[in-house]
Amino acid sequence: MSKSGEESNILGEGEMKEQVVCPWQGPGDHYKAGVLLVWCSDRRFIPAMKAFIRHRGYKNADTILLPGGAKALASLKKKQRLKADIKRIKTLLDLHGAPKIVLMTHTDCGAYKGASDEVIKADLPKAKRILRKRLPNKVEIEMVFVSKENVLSLE
């Protein structure tokens, strides 16, 4: 209640007004994810992500887009960010039960400021080790590197 005794909404002024921005057909029932992708937010590589999902036949792929992809998890310098990113991953695993995580880095990544592909690839095992310490062992973790021509699985 306000000082004048009138109720107000969160915005502080009467009722909120709704306006349809875009019609769409709502989702079905809650789902189980086939995979959780930790992918770079670089829009040039979103088509590769879509092709990868299609090629592998994943149903209901959850995605977390992070600048640098797996680099965000491999860098222990930014502990607060790492903690938040791992919390997001755990939350999605809890909500949608993906049995597998795919960690991604890519060629020509701005987060690496001109580094070679070999330097970029080197963060994948680091990120995998960090996740492995913090997640249940039942979750499989795959590492992929995206070049300008292919999505490569690394071991």
Structure description:
32% of the residues lie in helices and 19% in strands. The protein is an alpha/beta fold. It has one domain: Carbonic anhydrase (Beta-carbonic Anhydrase, Chain A, 3-Layer(aba) Sandwich), CATH 3.40.1050. Strands 2-1-3-4-5 form a five-stranded mixed beta sheet. Strand 1, helix 1 and strand 2 form a beta-alpha-beta unit. The longest helix has 18 residues, at 79-96. The relative contact order is 0.17.
Quick rundown:
The protein is of the alpha/beta class and 155 residues long. The chain is built from 5 helices and 5 strands. The chain has one domain (35-154): 3-Layer(aba) Sandwich (Beta-carbonic Anhydrase, Chain A).
Averaged pLDDT:
90
Radius of gyration: 20 Å
Percent in helix: 25-40%
The CATH topology is Beta-carbonic Anhydrase, Chain A
Task: Give the total of domains.
Answer: 1
Strand order of the largest sheet: 2-1-3-4-5
Number of helices: 5
The low-confidence runs, each spanning 5 or more residues with pLDDT under 50, are: none
Using the 3D structure, state the CATH architecture: 3-Layer(aba) Sandwich
Share of residues in strands: 15-25%
Distance between the termini: 61 Å
- CATH class call: Alpha Beta
- SS-based class: alpha/beta
Largest sheet: 5 strands, mixed
Element-by-element helix/strand order: EHEHHEHHEE
Q: What is the 3D shape?
A: globular
User: What's the CATH H-level homologous superfamily?
Assistant: Carbonic anhydrase
